[in-house]
Design goal:
- With 456 residues, the chain is of the alpha/beta class.
- Helices cover 36% and strands 12% of the residues.
- The chain is built from 14 helices and eleven strands.
- It has an eleven-stranded mixed sheet, with helices on both faces.
- α3 links the parallel β2 and β3.
- α6 runs antiparallel to α14 and α8 crosses α10.
- The protein is globular and about 65 Å long.
- It starts with 11 loop residues before the first helix and ends in a 5-residue tail after the last helix.
Length: 456
Amino acid sequence: MTTIDEYLGTSAVANVKRAIQAAKDKPEYNALLALCEERALEQASKVDSGEIKGRLAGVPFVAKDNFLTFGAPTTAASHILKDFNAPLQATAIEKLEAEGAICIGKANLDAFAHGGSTENSVFGPTLNAVDKDRVAGGSSGGSAVATALGIVPFATGTDTGGSIRQPASFNGVYGVKPTYGTVSRFGVVAMASSTDTIGCFATSASDAQLVMDVMAGRDARDMTSLPDFFEIADVKSGQKIGIIKEFMTDDVDAGVKQSVIQYVDRLKSAGHTVEEVSLPILKYALAMYYVIVPAEISSNLARYDGVRYGKRADAGTLSDLYGKSRNDGFVSENKRRIMIGSYVLSSGYFDAYYMQAQKARTLLINAFNELFNTYDVLLGPVSPTPAFKLGENTSDPIKMYLADMMTVAPSLTGMPAISVPARATDEGLPVGVQLIGQRRHDAQLLALAKSVEGAA
């Protein structure tokens, strides 16, 4: 793994060549779908000449391939956008480039970010950075693996229900899902508009702080973006931390539980108080998520019809054009979520399912807020297991969805949550601890993680 400091103050061109070569040397992981080699070297030359200056001057990174960027197609790892070249760049990418960061490639993901293993990519799965027989996690698997392999010191990702935190946990890096609206979603392929967030992967809490500080802030092109509140903070001493009882049951892998307990010991040694807390409503969070999110997916994916952009099937009628383009362009998981979403939004079922899920979501938010009246931070595993074997869950969508049970609640409530590397299992598999905070307390979460970073 590499850190941002290793690239600062050195030749940007050399940094870019080093990162691109590292990517070319590790093709078997399938972490990157395309390299932006020509444009990256042009940007690096501007940094070396002094034309571009900033806090990330000369630092290479990769963008998840649902971020619109120049220099390579934006495919969302799908058939329907396979050759789509973006006419603009995402706000997050523009902000990073303004500070001198250089995008060297596009990272693999589950198609349209629908999945938890990066096995739903039409370009093939990404392999875990530690064990090639295991999944990278998803949907931002390529970004996590590129960071864990040291190809780049950081990468961008999107998190709708765990898509940054889970692959970060599976590959042993930091993964940040910020407060909803912290970073503009403009120029990022939409999944579920009420839970989509833009975050990052990094190899240290300090690097994650810096990257988030650069990307955060209001954007007039995204009305859900918040005024800039993110400010790098120092850790608050003597915090009261709640470990979530429902996340530490017998259903959780023993190695994962032990890693969490060891991390709790580090927090206690640093002077913080850790107590068990209970959130009984969490048992309904996954059901809420898989009603609300497919509903929003079915709406957002309606734009891919073969008419305006993307794959266009040969058809004799407009109806056939829509049907064939969508059938050929979407993978099975995309279709599954579209059908679920269309069903819960349909007449006769909207009130019974979608509205009930939204009401339950409000109760979930209230339950978290009540705990935050007493506790500064909540804590638990990111996933009930370490990275699972490739192909293990592909034939069982429900089992795959259950892997999200610990990450969906912060997404539904809009609260910040980060995956922090903890002790590996006895088999050497990475484990992440999830720190959850109050809205707009993102920097405080990262400061807490930084304060116990590396402590044994």
